[in-house]
Every structure is written in C-alpha cells, then in structure tokens.
Design brief:
Helix content: 25-40%
CATH architecture: 3-Layer(aba) Sandwich
Strand order of the largest sheet: 1-2-3-4-5-7-6
CATH topology: Aminopeptidase
Number of domains: 1
Shape: globular
Bound molecules: coenzyme A
C-alpha cells in the first residue's frame, strides 16, 4: 500500500471488467431494495447470468450513449453502481421538451448504505452528463421505495409524475423525479464542505 491507495470505498467510471460485479450488485440490489414491494417470485427469478450478458454488452457501447459509474470497496469489489442513457424527450410526459437523460439504475448494497456513496455516484454521473451536452435528467422510482425517494428529494429531484404499470406480473406505482439539467444534479450532489 502507498499514499495513493484508497482505503475506503471510492467511485470511478465502469470498465469492461466490472460487468460481473455490476451484475451481482444489480441482482442483490433488487432483492434487497424491493423485498416487500415486488412479489417474492419476481425477486427470486432475478438472474446474475442474464444481467451479466446485458452488462457485458452495455459496457461495450460507444462513448456518448451510456454512462456507468461504480462504487468500489477495495476489500469487496463493486458494491454499487449508477447508469444513465439518453432518453426520449417525453420520458415524463409531454410537458418536457428537448434532449434528456434518464437514470434507469442506481443500486448500492445494503451493507454500504448511508455512507455518501449514492451522492458520490450521482455526482460523478451528473458531471459526465453535463459534459455530454444539454438535457434534463429524469428517473423513476417505485412509489413505495421510501429510502430512494428520500434520497432523490435530498439531492434536489422534483417529483413530476406518478404512473401505474405492470412489472413482472405485479401492478406497481412509480414516482418520477426530474432535474432541470445535469449541472443542477451535479451541484446538489457536490461533496459537502466540512463545517468550520
Ligand atoms: C437510494 C440510494 C442509492 C441512496 O444511497 P446512499 O449511499 O445510501 O445515500 P447517501 O449516503 O449518499 O445519502 C445522501 C442523502 O440522501 C438522504 N437519504 C439517503 N438514504 C436515506 C434514507 N434511507 N432515509 C432518509 N434519507 C435518506 C439523506 O438526506 C442523505 O444525507 P445524510 O446521510 O447526510 O442524511 C440507496 O439507498 C440504495 O442503493 N438503495 C437500494 C437500491 C435502490 O432502492 N435504488 C433506487 C432505485 S430507484
């Protein structure tokens, strides 16, 4: 170990070799976060092999289409990740015009919650999106996912849509959050200055 070696979890852009770590966190993240919110058989059906195939392809996409960042615990590997893609302007209804980004995935293992990793992942992502060009930023959360909704509100997300749909055979209600642009999200997730 030297002075440069991180000792706690840190965030960096995802690389091709992260596909397996991301796939595992994707499945475990679903099972932990959605217990009691989605039918247990839907959670039991989640497959690392299936997610691994998807993430292997996603991480090969050319730059400028998809952005993925991982949270790495040096002792454990990938413990969280976030991803964004370009979205159709109408993602949250006809009121939103112009280019847009959507954030379909944000998962941190339960063992690593409330340590600032969600904020840190979103900040890294938002800075990359701001560099990629203009566009509002939007995402959907299960309406019953209270920790996630508290997080989105804490980082400045505005609730601007509620939608009922079927997911994996279950009827669910989704809450849509939006930021005017990626710079706004970057500002709201910026590292806090320690109090003096
Ligand atoms: C949503 C999620 C990414 C937040 O990540 P996190 O690393 O725990 O959040 P942070 O530590 O960065 O928290 C930032 C702020 O968000 C708010 N917040 C986060 N979790 C919260 C909770 N459970 N209850 C209330 N507020 C919360 C707080 O204001 C917090 O600041 P504070 O810790 O100084 O009070 C995380 O809970 C998660 O991955 N959950 C499981 C998967 C999931 O539900 N993903 C979302 C799918 S839509």
């Amino acid at each position: 170990m030297n002075a440069q070696t991180p000792i706690g979890p840190y965030v960096r852009p995802a690389m091709a070799d992260d596909a397996e770590g991301i796939a595992k966190v994707h499945v475990r993240g679903w099972q932990e976060a959605y217990a009691g919110l989605l039918p247990q058989e839907v959670l039991d059906r989640q497959s690392v092999a299936y997610r691994l195939r998807l993430w292997t392809d996603y991480l090969k996409e050319p730059p400028g289409q998809r952005w993925t960042f991982v949270a790495i615990d040096p002792a454990l590997g990938v413990v969280g990740f976030v991803g964004a893609t370009r979205a159709k302007p109408a993602i949250h209804g006809p009121a939103i015009h112009g280019p847009a980004f959507k954030i379909p995935v944000l998962y941190i293992l339960q063992s690593h919650l409330r340590r600032g990793l969600g904020r840190h992942l979103m900040h890294a992502l938002a800075r990359a999106l701001a560099e990629a060009g203009p566009g509002s930023v939007a995402l959907w959360s299960l309406a019953g996912n209270r920790p996630a909704r508290a997080f989105y509100q804490a980082v400045g997300g505005r609730l601007n849509a509620v939608l009922a749909e079927r997911q994996g055979g279950a009827r669910v209600t989704l809450a849509g959050y939006r930021w005017r642009n990626a710079a706004e999200l970057a500002e709201r997730t910026a590292p806090r200055q320690p109090a003096t």
